[in-house]
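User: Hello! My lab partner asked me to get a predicted holo structure for this protein. The small molecule is zinc ion, SMILES included with the sequence. Please write out the structure tokens.
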Amino acid sequence: MAFPTVRVFESYAATASEAFDAVMLLGDFSRPVPDDFSEFVAQAKQLDQRVGQQALLIPADVAGGRLILAPTGSLSCDYADVRFISDAAGTAARIAQQAGATSVLVVLFGIPSEERYNQAEAVAYWGICQALYEPLEAREFHGEGKLETLTTVGMIGALDEDWFQAVEAGKRVARDLAGTEPERMAPKRFAEYCQQAFAHTPVKVTVIDDLQQLQHEYPLFMAVARASVGVERHHPCVVRLEYKAPAAEQTLLLAGKGVVYDTGGADVKTGGHMAGMSRDKGGAAGVAGFVKTVAEMRPKTLSVVAELGLVRNSIGADAFVSDEIVTGHSGVRVRIGNTDAEGRLVLADLLSHLRVAASNYPRPQLFSVATLTGHAALAKGPYTALVPNGPARANLVAEQLWEAGEQYGDPAEISWLRREDFDMVRPRTKADDTLSSNTGPSATTKRGHQFPMAFLMIAAGLDKHGQDSEQPLPYVHVDIAGSGVEGGDWQHGKPTATPVTCFAGRYLQR
Ligand SMILES: [Zn+2]
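Assistant: Hello! Below are the structure tokens for the protein in complex with zinc ion.
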């Protein structure tokens, strides 16, 4: 583990004999500062008006002599949420690391006792880890441990350090997989990373990489893969992750879009829009990360099955093109509308497999997780878009994820499926059953992140499992195109590991 370890103490007094080399005072500085620190803060304020306004390191008679002030701003205003705490913790953690501290005690104060701050300590810890995370390639070049020098985070309260670390372990897997350049995380190398991440855990990893088998079982996925097949190191694969709970009562079945590079295919991305498309595997990365947290937590009653579709949407003589009709695993004939709308083709086959598998498991819920549409980023900004089907709506599946996202600092917003979404993908002739996409960019298409959900339902055969069917299957489509990287900067932004925390908070907290 190269992320900071959590150490939990009952009180500030109980930390006296510990070898911390900095203390982080984190909270709303318009509220009273704890007695142990009030004198230091008051003195510093006389010299520096920034005290309480921005993150600062002041010399003080605390562990290591370093007191780092981490103001959150007002936590009681209407739009404040727990990310005020993770942001402040992250900024202060960078100061701590730059100052040379390796072991920081975090003291929270002035946190309103409101539901939105229920998970303040956990969120502060994850904020520190997010801020100090370094990319996999950077760690591989410089050596593990050379860049991430903060090794311990102390926290105070009745806290569960195993849970904090289990979530961070998952987030780290998600960031590593999402953020890497396209050759380092070509499909087979993505699969190898998963095999290592789940070695010696109860999660079973299966890699399907036989091209004939893939062609037979995942034909839409293989249409996307077609132009990559000529280059051996770019060959596609499907990774299946399974966790069987000892006394399963509920099952999550997740499909992850793992397009390791998206050139757009024959509808090639132009005008500089290709840069950053190595991050188009963020959905598969997020799902793998969540399963990593499952592997750490080993829930007793929750089983999880995931399928990750790892493929490069290359361009070449054998590239699939618009107008082609491809019959998916579900038997549904799909007319290709645009080859840059490839993620939904990958997901449709994965979802179709999960739909079949669902009948073997208790209380199944299905999810697709993907950096799917520019429209989601336009409509939601930095928030994950959740689009539930009828049975998911009836069971409040998206609402419960939304609530967890708010409290755990991985926020999402809900979008509703409408009749216009189905109209958009209706077949225009009897030659096909559905159209994958319109021809324009999703960001300039009305309902550009909702209508792909209609396509996914039809192409995966899930339209036969609505609320009016004999076998209703709750299904939520999760579009992380706006939330997957910090600042919406697909080329350089640090991966956020969404929706690991949201799902872990909803399904795994003890
Ligand atoms: Zn694309």
